[in-house]
Amino acid sequence: MRKRLSLSFAHLSCIKPNVNTPKLFSNAYPAGRHLLLLFLSIYISLPSYLSCTLSISSSHSPRMALFLCLFFFLISSSSACDRCVHQTKVAYFSKASALSSGACGYGSLAVGFTGGYLAAAVPSLYNNGAGCGACFQMRCKNTTLCAEQGTKVIVTDLNQNNHTDFVLSSRAFRAMANKGMEQDILKLGLVNVEYKRIPCEIPCEYKNQNLAVRVEETSKKPNYLAVKFLYQGGQTEIVAVDVAQVGSSDWSFMSRNYGAVWDTDRVPAGALQFRMVVTSGYDGKWIWAQNVLPVDWKVGVVYDSGVQINDIAKEGCSPCDDGSWNSR
Ligand SMILES: *[C@@H]1O[C@H](CO)[C@@H](O)[C@H](O)[C@H]1NC(C)=O
Ligand SMILES: *[C@@H]1O[C@H](CO)[C@@H](O)[C@H](O)[C@H]1NC(C)=O
User: Fold this and answer.
1) Atom of ligand 1 nearest to the CA of 188
2) How many CB atoms lie within 10 A of CB 306?
3) Which ligand is nearest to the CA of 159?
4) Where are the domains of the chain?
5) For 78-109, what is each residue's pLDDT tens digit?
6) What topology does CATH give the domain 209-315?
7) Atom of ligand 1 nearest to the CA of 185
8) DSSP-derived secondary structure letter, 68
């Protein structure tokens, strides 16, 4: 079953392709540069903000409309639009465990749901955790050594070392090699690659997977709930999450705790529904999962949200997007 609440709002021009999504509810909000960008984006998106407010205040309370629209225009400078091919070097982790315990908090689940094709991304791509679960295709540039199609990886960790945009799991690193060249590429340890962001469908069965919600071990009834989102498809970022009792419109917002983990200390009673603001390129929408956690939700359990997220940034969203790899 799929259900969506979709809002239309004006597409904004590519003003700041690499600006991090502001952390709306964090108390560690870096002032200065972000504030400047904020005012810039307010200025640019004011007309769409006003029309957004008008168009949804008919179906929500005015206060809620203001709140929702504020979201959209705060996130309108986020970076998911990028479809360009980038150049970098990549290295690999010799230990698989290094990545599966990555900063996104997927833990050992990461290996399961991606087939072990994992990557740690630099801060600009990790994007304070909004980049968790993003998928990239990459191939190394030595045609003797490396296969044409390269490999697909999913971001599960933060790469603090800024010499490479990514550090891969050894499985993903090997997968870039031509048949029989796997040992050669491992021996090199560091290769030149080109990469681009792609919609997530790794492996194939992930493609039609519903978004799942895992209740984290730190959750404690009745006051604290931490959840992790799994199988976030498409080319998307979850930038806001609210939770409410099923059937209620008394929503509590959740904050990104770290990586793909969101939490709140105002937990509604009863069975729980979620709604998320998901961005893809310059589009944002609410996705509403109407019945996710049962009354007796338990830690460590993965619950099906009943919705899929599979939006893809619009074609032509980046001027560089020609839908193909350039020849090496
Ligand atoms: C490509 O890789 C092969 C095999 O490792 C190596 O012999 C060759 O020198 C490399 N070519 C370049 C241009 O680096
Ligand atoms: C990498 O990080 C170090 C320390 O954080 C910094 O001094 C250096 O300028 C960075 N290099 C690049 C290329 O960003």
Assistant:
1) 5
2) 17
3) 2
4) 29-77, 86-206, 209-315
5) 444 566 788 899 999 877 666 667 889 888 77
6) Immunoglobulin-like (2.60.40)
7) 5
8) H
